[in-house]
Amino acid sequence: MKMLLAMAVIFSICLSFALQQKDPWKVPEKYEKIKNPVTADKASIKSGKEIYMNYCTGCHGINGKGAGARSERLTTEPADFTTAAFQNQSDGALLYKVYFGHHEMPGFKHVFPGHEGVSENSFGETRVPGDLINYLRSYVKK
Fold it and tell me: How far apart are CA 37 and CA 126, in angstroms?
């Protein structure tokens, strides 16, 4: 029985990994080029932190390393915002990922105000996405 359970766990892990490899998170090129229009000052980072605490800590954790309370129930590992791989992404790529999601990462486009103006050329009509991206960028400085 233990052997069967162990085999089932290994199979699930392998299947999950295989599915992730077949469907990597691709950001459309038109989003890659967007720059964050919001200056990363103290007010922006503070506002971004409030957004993060309300919507992101469950999976990504308070320290941004992807170890939130919900992360243990996911089949994909949440992003670690302190890594170079994360920080090297463009502002537009991060905007796209936050707004549209992928697999277990929900899209927040309709949650944040001003989402109507978000497009392949714009962060939208409010500071919300820019503030959040500035806060996520602050993890590299800690």
Answer: 10
Q: Which CATH class is domain 27-141?
A: mainly alpha
Q: Given phi > 0 = left and psi -120 to 50 = alpha, else beta, which region is 70?
A: alpha
Tens-digit pLDDT profile for residues 52-75: 999 999 999 999 999 999 988 999
User: Which residues are paired to 4 by β-bridges?
Assistant: none
pLDDT by residue (tens digit) across 105-121?
998 888 876 666 666 66
Q: Is the CB of residue 76 less than 8 Å from the CB of residue 70?
A: no
Q: Bridge-partner residues for 119, per DSSP? A: 122
103 in Cβ contact with 26 (< 8 Å): no
